[in-house]
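Service request form, structural biology core

Requester: graduate student, group of Dr. S.
Request type: structure prediction, single chain
Budget code: on file
Notes: please return the result as structure tokens.

Sequence provided:
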Amino acid sequence: MSATVGQRLAALEKRLKDMERASRLSHAALDNTALEVRDDSGSLRAIVGQQDDGTSGVNVVNGPPPPAPTPPTVEPALAALAISWDGTFADAVAAPLDWMRCEVHIGPDADYTPSQDTLRDTIETPQGGTVTVPLPYTEWFVKLRSRTTSGATSAATAAVAATPRKADTEDLTAGLITADLIAVDALTGKAITGGTITGSILRTATSGERVAINESSGNDIKLYDATGVLVATLDGSGLRLVGDNGSSMTLNPDSVYPYLQFSSEDGLSNATIRVAESTPGAANLELTCGAFTSGVYTDMRWRTILGSDYWVAERYTSTPSYKVLGGRVDLRPTHGTFGYMDNTGSTSVISRVVFSPGMGQVEARLRVEAPASDSSALYAQAAAGHTGYLMRLYDANAAAYRFAVDLAGNTDVNGVLNARNIATGTVTITPSAAHQSTSTIVSGLNVAGTTFRGYATANTTVVGVRSPLGGGAAGVTGVAVTSVSSTGLTVWVNRENTTATVVNWMVIGS
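Core staff response, request fulfilled:
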């Protein structure tokens, strides 16, 4: 049955009374927003919930200025001032609930205005406290002021003047200072023994010739000369020494291989001594000169390597990659090599002499240009007991020895022997009449020697008298030479007819 109008009004009245009696925020929520709290004048005093920076919480703003603290008690301390606040406020008011801290300000005169520059310390509890502020030995003026959580500050207290106390004999007797920390702006004395000094600058003077430790917070040791020029630096990267002319030496242990570098005055040329590990565990010593220009290369260098059982000196370029170009010495346990190498091109050029036990092997053309003397320009001597050849020349193309001299001096020439003291040739002589000696002159020779001998023989198969005189004989009856000299000879022939005769001749000088 449907409810009457009166019943419905009674039900609504009951629900309204229940809502009035219930807590207004028992089921309330602030979804991604904030609740603002304002005072009776409408000024914003707090923000509850989502803040402008994305955080959530209670942010007190626009709070009233807090009461000023009572003036501090200031006592001189050793190179500092001890500043105390008793936790009370001006006019004996109580600490407000939004009070945050008591600021300690120190200035050089009584009329300064407290600011971030004069803030030296804070007291974080309304019960008061004492702070010690290190200061130079001059008069200082201390003021206090309160600050709230909303950032409001009170008026500053009246300035209280005091001067830090200097140390006297009672402060520095043996064993008197036992604190773990001494905080001062300046410490003057003759000796500090034992303990640890952390985070300080130590130097023998402020200018001129001096030693400085941790200057400019560089975590280093610096040495200056009498003119104030930096001449030595020791830091985490190594040691650097600078000469009067600006040249320098740098010892760097942090490189892949530790090295000592010598630099020119302008720093453009560097020579190095370094340790290299060509194989695991090796400690090879490498000396490299500064770069120089040669031909098309602008980075040529000489280097010497004292390696694991070897020694090398060579001239090289690193453009575009490591290449040897020039003289090279390579010493090994079994041999030593002295020569020239050029592997900058597609084909390597190597000329060298390799010395091994009892042997020197020349891998190049050999040219001897001996100076003038009464000794042999080229001399070879075999030791007593030698049984091999004295000399042999081998032709690899023909796979044969072309010249050989054995121990007895026997000489074998596998080829044509040309000697300046020997001349040979051939002439053709036509006799003027049968049984008539006919000659021809050979000239234009240049036979070496002082005594000359000539020889001749006919190139014929009919030798001697072949038939009685007038009987059609054709034999060669004689061949001879006369007038033998370095420039020529006369060759004679006699035969039984007038047939042209080929004669081979030879002149030997001695």
